[in-house]
Amino acid sequence: MRDAARGRPDVLIEKIQLVYEISGLRSELRSRELVERLGVLERIQESMEHLYELDSPEVLIEAAPGELCRSCGFSRALISQIRGSHWVPQVYETVPGVDPEEDVFREWLQSVEIPLEHMLLETELVRRRMPALVPDPQHDPRTFKGIVNRGRTVAYVVAPIIPAGRAIGFLHADRIGQESQVSRDDRENIWSFAEHFAFIYHRAVLLERLASQHDQLQEAFRSAEAAFQDLRDAQIELGRTDKASPEVPATALFARTESRLDALLTRREREVLELITSGATNVRIAEQLVISEGTVKSHVKHILRKLRVNNRAEAVARYLQLLRRDQEQAGR
Length: 332
Known about the structure:
Blueprint: H1 2-6, H2 9-52, H3 57-72, E1 76-83, E2 86-94, H4 102-109, E3 114-115, H5 121-128, E4 132-134, H6 145-150, E5 156-161, E6 169-174, H7 184-233, H8 260-264, H9 267-277, H10 282-289, H11 293-307, H12 312-331
Antiparallel strand pairs: 1-2, 1-6, 2-3, 4-5, 5-6
C-alpha cells in the first residue's frame, strides 16, 4: 500500500509543492535577515556620523556605549580601556528599565580593574584582533566570572578597539531583558561598530594634538611680535660705552633658545623621557602617545645612548640634572 501511494501522481505533486514552499520560506527568511542586517548597518553609519561631530576623545568615550545600544539593539554596552596588563571599565550604558540592578552594577564597575591573564578571552582577542560571541559565559572557562556574575550575564558579544594596529580597549554588549539573546549577527555588528569607532577615535586624538601644536605655534609668533615691538619702541641714547654692544641677529628675536636637552633629544624622545620620569611603563607610554610598544622601546634605546646611561633610573637622574641646568641658565 505504501509503495502504491508513493507512486501516485497526486502524492508526488504534493511533495513537490511542499519542497517549493520550504524553499520559498527559506528564501523569505534569508531576505528578512538581510534586510535586518542592512538596517543595523545603516544605523551604525548614522551613529558614526554623530560621533564624527564630537570634539574630543573623552566625549567620544562617553557617547560610544549609548550609540552602540541604539544602533545594534543591545540592552547594555560597556567601553573599557586597556591599561598596561589590565582592562578597566570606563563607561557603562543601559537601556532604561531593562536592568533593576543597574546602579549597583555600575558602581562596582567603577572600582574594578580586570587582569589580562593568559587564559582570559579578552587577552586572546587582543592577540588575535577579532570579535567574539560568548553564548554561555557562566560555564566558559575563559570569561572573567566577577563581571559575569555581578552583571547576571547570560550571553554577550565583545570586540577590541584597534585604532592604529594595537588594541587599546574593548566594547562589550548583551541583550539582558530581551526575549532573544545575542547571536552571530550581533558579533559581526559590534565588530563593524568597533572598527569604525576606532578610526573616529584615532582622528579625534590626532586633531587634539594638532590643536595643541597650533596653540604653541601661535604663542611663539606672539612672543616674536612682542620682541619686534619692543625693539621698535626702544629709546635711542647718544653716548659712549667702554664695551661695544654686541649685535644680535634679527633671527634671534624669534628663534627659540636651544637647551641642552633640545640639543640631545628629539621632541618625541623628550616626551618619552618625561613619561619615564613620571614612572610610566612602556605600555603606558605607548597608550599615552598612541604608538606601538616596539616604537617606545626603540625611543628608550636611543635616549639611553644619547644620555650615555645604562638604564632608565640613570636616564631619569641625568634628565633632572640637565633640566636643572637649563633652568638655571634661563634664569641668568
